[in-house]
Design goal:
Blueprint: H1 5-10, H2 12-16, E1 31-34, H3 41-50, E2 58-61, E3 75-80, H4 86-98, E4 101-106, H5 109-118, E5 121-124, H6 135-145, H7 151-160, H8 165-175, E6 200-201, E7 204-205
Parallel strand pairs: 1-2, 1-3, 3-4, 4-5
Antiparallel strand pairs: 6-7
Helix pairs in contact: 3-6
Length: 206
Amino acid sequence: MGISIDVDTRNFFDMLQAKVNVNSRSYPNKLLISGMGGSGIGGRIMETLANFEDMGDISSWNNYGLPAWLSSSDNVICISYSGNTAETLSVAKKAHKLGCKIEVITTGGNLGNLADKNGWQKTLIESGHQPRAALPLLLKPLLYKLNIPNTELIVKEVSEHNYEKSQVENVALDLSGKIPCIYTCLLYTSDAADEGLGVDLGGRRI
């Protein structure tokens, strides 16, 4: 049985500080980052950062198949915590058929098996967590792959920041048993160009 969501949430900074064995990469062409739900959040963060920083042409993808613009010269990073997400497996298989360069971030599963079979670069992360709460484990490899400067310093500053614990706990208690509605400016999200209305659930819109 996996770790509960509340324990995982409390261990956010411990997961963020976990060691990652990933080398920095260069992506001269377009980069597609595929993932669903909690496994898709990292891609959306990178896509948003790329709108404001010189990081290259980065897009997140939260669906089956591939976008029409993807070509064989492009790179694809498939992220699935379990390694068994149907949409992400669909992307990996179609990208392989197209001839794209593929990397995966996962705990194993079918995606890990595909990576082993086809010789894709595979980053294995710690298993046993709730996928949505495992954001630090899924995001940190992306930070290294995309050469985000001072990654370790960023992790250190975030982890050591003096958060007001009582305030955080009060907010959590207020939200307990409720469905929160969070309003934000689309300028700072990867949905900035999306004029449609909807609720975004980490890649699943309703």
